[in-house]
Design brief:
- This protein is mostly helical.
- It has three domains: 45 residues; 35 residues; 40 residues, no CATH class.
- It has five helices and no strands.
- The longest helix is centred in the middle third of the chain and has 34 residues.
Length: 131
């Protein structure tokens, strides 16, 4: 069940800002919606998203959205590579390396320690064990 891509607005960002400025100037929202051929819902959605933005701020917001999308793609690719490399690395003598405590040495699943009780593992284990 794939979702259909979102429709793009027939109005540019500058036109949307102009319509919002008209509403701030006192023109009725119903009149703005009828002349721009948009619904009240669309107008209020635009106002919620773009309200109070200047054209410079809008341009900056669009640049940030593009940059965020680029970074999300990079993170997805890196995560995918990491998952692939994890499945390709063999286990060390049949034992898996468990997470490291902060500042500690690696713990192996075969070792028994005093701090191997459930939630007491971790960075603040010494503090919790004194209570």
């Amino acid at each position: 069940m794939g979702s259909a891509p979102m429709r793009h607005s027939q109005h540019t960002d500058q036109e949307i800002l102009f319509l919002l400025y008209e509403a701030d100037a006192g023109i009725s929202i119903a009149e703005i919606c009828s002349t721009a051929h948009i619904s009240l819902r669309t107008f209020y959605r635009w106002r919620k998203r773009y309200g109070g933005l200047t054209s410079e701020a809008l341009r900056h917001m669009k640049e940030l959205e593009i940059e965020n999308q680029r970074l999300r793609t990079l993170v997805d690719k890196l995560s995918e590579r990491q998952n692939v490399s994890r499945t390709e690395t063999p286990l060390i003598k049949g034992r898996q390396l468990q997470r490291q405590d902060f500042g500690g040495s690696p713990r192996w699943s075969g070792e028994a320690t005093n701090q191997s009780r459930g939630a007491s593992l971790g960075r603040f284990a010494s503090i919790r064990s004194t209570r």
